[in-house]
């Protein structure tokens, strides 16, 4: 019961911190059209949902993939726990972009039954999260609008894959900024140390090669994409 209360509290707090960043990105997108936005006005709040809801969705899909795979192996979990990241902290750490969250994670109850199980759990969550991120990238790029000059969004770090899909000289739609976070968290989860997904995958490559050969190649392709990230 306490675990569920902690999970709900963290997701609610995370939704607030993510929403505050979404309001910022929505206002920046509106400014690109030559309109002065009212930050906490209804129009801007409605536009900001295109950042808040997709970010929560990407995290939920990623962790849901882990949960589903873990349940298929009979592994019980705690969580998922979302890590809020208030804008006030981002202001004091300018090298870290305004995101609203640092991701989410699950905890396993007990040891995993095998190397293949650990691989499948990590791989399923990673692919689910990346699939949701790709969908947000394509749709967000389609809704982005061309502009002249450099707007306020140009001050923010953007993954190369997002800039390649959206092109140059465009104002990023809040949905595309949500995809930006999805790419950042996806690459972050590929850090080759446990308990990150990358560590769980890397240290089990040899053990799963025979049974999951196509998945190993997919994992290698994801790592190659991160090289040009």
Query: Into which percent range does the helicity of residues fall?
Result: 55-70%
Apparent shape: globular
How many β-strand stretches? 4
Computed over alpha carbons, the radius of gyration is 19 Å
Percent of residues in β-strands: 5-15%
The biggest sheet, with number of strands, parallel, antiparallel or mixed sense and barrel status, is:
2 strands, antiparallel
Strand order of the largest sheet: 1-2
Average pLDDT for all residues:
84
Q: Look at the helices and sheets and give the structural class.
A: mainly alpha
Describe this structure in words.
There is one protein chain. It contains nine helices and four strands, in the order ααβαβαβαβαααα. With 229 residues, the protein is mainly alpha-helical. It has a two-stranded antiparallel sheet with strand order 1-2. It has a two-stranded antiparallel sheet with strand order 3-4. The mean pLDDT is 84.
List the helices and strands and how they pair.
Elements: H1 2-31, H2 42-72, E1 77-84, H3 87-92, E2 101-108, H4 115-143, E3 145-146, H5 160-166, E4 170-171, H6 174-188, H7 197-202, H8 205-208, H9 213-227
Antiparallel strand pairs: 1-2, 3-4
Features:
single chain; 229 residues; mainly alpha; two-stranded antiparallel ribbon; 9 helices; globular
Give a concise summary.
This protein has 229 residues and is mainly alpha-helical.
């Amino acid at each position: 019961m306490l675990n569920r209360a902690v999970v709900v509290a963290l997701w609610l707090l995370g939704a607030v911190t993510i929403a505050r960043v979404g309001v910022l990105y929505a206002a920046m997108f509106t400014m690109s059209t030559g309109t002065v936005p009212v930050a906490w006005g209804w129009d801007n709040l409605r536009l900001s949902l295109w950042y808040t809801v997709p970010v929560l969705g990407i995290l939920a899909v990623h962790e849901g993939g882990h949960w589903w795979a873990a349940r298929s192996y009979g592994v019980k979990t705690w969580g998922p726990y979302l890590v809020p990241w208030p804008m006030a902290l981002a202001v004091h750490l300018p090298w870290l972009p305004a995101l609203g969250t640092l991701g989410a994670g699950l905890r396993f109850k007990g040891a995993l039954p095998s190397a293949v199980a650990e691989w499948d759990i990590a791989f399923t969550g990673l692919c689910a999260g990346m699939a949701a991120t790709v969908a947000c990238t394509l749709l967000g790029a389609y809704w982005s609008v061309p502009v002249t000059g450099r707007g306020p969004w140009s001050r923010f770090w953007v993954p190369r894959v997002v800039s390649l899909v959206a092109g140059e000289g465009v104002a990023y739609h809040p949905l595309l900024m949500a995809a930006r976070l999805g790419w950042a968290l996806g690459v972050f989860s590929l850090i080759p140390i446990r308990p990150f997904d990358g560590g769980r995958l890397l240290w089990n490559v040899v053990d799963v090669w025979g049974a999951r050969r196509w998945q190993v190649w997919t994992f290698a392709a994801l790592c190659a994409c991160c090289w040009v990230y």
